[in-house]
């Protein structure tokens, strides 16, 4: 659902498979305070600030990306 939503909005993203990539898993654990569920999204803003989103929350994702629907 998240990948479909981002693709439909022409938002580029990097998918990291935490079950296959230990470095990606460690990065996720550090940024999520130990949460291991997916999807887990980190939005990197132009200011350098990062916003983490646990699960697929369309409204929160849209706000973080500046998408208005």
UniProtKB/TrEMBL annotation:
SUPFAM superfamilies: Thioredoxin-like. InterPro entries: Thioredoxin-like_sf (IPR036249). This is Glutaredoxin domain-containing protein. It comes from Candidatus Woesebacteria bacterium RBG_13_36_22.
